[in-house]
Amino acid sequence: MSDKRQCFFAADLGATSGRTVLGWFGPSGPELEEISRFPNHLICSGGRFYWDIYELFRNVLEGLRKAAGRDGCEICSIGVDTWGVDFVCVGGDGAFLRLPRAYRDPFTSGAAERFFSVVPRDEVYRRTGIQVMDFNTLFQLHAMRLSSDSALAAAHRLLFMPDAITYMLTGEMVTEYTIASTSQLLDASTRRFDRQLLEAVGLTEECFGRFVFPGQKVGTLTPEVQRQTGLGPVPVIAVAGHDTASAVAAVPASGSDFAYLSSGTWSLMGIETAAPVMTDAARELNFTNEGGVCGTIRLLKNICGMWILERCRAVWGAVPYDVLTGEALAAEPFRSIINPDDASFANPQDMIEAIQMFCRRHRQPVPDTRGRLVRCIFESLALRYRHVFDSLRTLSGRQLSVLHVIGGGSCNTLLNQWTANATGVTVVAGPAEATAIGNIMMQAVAAGHAAGVEGMRRMVRSAVRPDTYVPTDTGVWEDALRRAPF
């Protein structure tokens, strides 16, 4: 038996950045080491937005090379997670037909309403339980068909983003459940592809890879990848391929009376359920039912998150967060409130101008300094979280006495406190690397080191020390909520 430490390798690819991480089990539970971190840039060409999947793959290979060189470490398995909805068209010869289109590409603007002339909105929700967003895979596919997209027309297979990376690693084409559940192509009850919706976009189940669930083996590294990384035939495991599903698996909660907020480029707030919630109220509130690990459903709502701030920071340069939060604290409270989910913030050329234009349209003071802009963003996000949190309580009938904030946004102490103030419940923040932890924990389940969601969470709780925020000044936040533009 090898005396090397048994390690799991996670490739965690987000919509703005990616990272590779090694994980193992120490005396107090799971431990992590970040191997590499890299940006994920949108490519704009010919008026279209693409993801550079080859650059992402190169970075994954580089992470594997570095991990393979770690003394005393044996990589037992590999898992890949990414953002949702986007996909790659694969030709009959197994080659990618072009770079995958990005969900922020405006070609899907209005795509949902165009599709509803084929299958009515209520019928789509009754089948899928997925919230309507123009960039969902279903609507992307319909828009591509209407435009006679050449890559789609020639495609032999479609692979969602994490499945495309695992294909490049193993040569095996699969469709992992949690990532497929974001597409609005699955029947939420059967957890398989909905044939009527596939037919509506000219596809069949055979257009996708072998269907797998989190914890199943995809394959092993190809000889080519083995040569490039210095590794052997390491297994690649289908983890929760959707990054939010991986993150939620790592929430350090006990029991069920909690909500989660996965805070990053997007903010995703929800609860776990045993079955999809597809009531009229859920449909009217535009909540989504996405797949989770170990048979769970993630009833949640997508909220535009730190994307708004990051687009402003791209203009301001590398201003430290503590400077920005200090300027925000010095600004007048509740001077301007935006709706973070307004379409004008999806992918504007100038985010600062988009915020200012929104405030003008809604007859609010225009935030004209950096501090006022940051305060506007953070207060608006906290109030939007409260708005969605109230809807979750209504839909679930649960009290929801605590909100777990996970992901990179859990390090934002000011926003965490304001979220506690706005929601009126205790906020427990951390772990920041929840997605990588969930990815690794699912590999651990496949290896027999953990069992079920509670088993994973028990191990996470033993290893992390989250921060706690108690609500204060709730009255002024109630007043602000009443005049929020959503």
UniProtKB/TrEMBL annotation:
Its EC number is 2.7.1.-. It is an enzyme of class 2 (transferase). Keywords: ATP-binding, Kinase, Nucleotide-binding, Rhamnose metabolism, Transferase. GO terms for molecular function: ATP binding; rhamnulokinase activity. Residues 259-447 form the Carbohydrate kinase FGGY C-terminal domain. Residues 12-248 form the Carbohydrate kinase FGGY N-terminal domain. InterPro entries: ATPase_NBD, FGGY_C, FGGY_Carb_Kinase, FGGY_N, Rhamnulokinase. The keyword Disulfide bond does not apply. PANTHER family: GLUCONOKINASE, SUGAR KINASE. Belongs to the FGGY kinase family. This is Rhamnulokinase family protein. It comes from Leyella lascolaii.
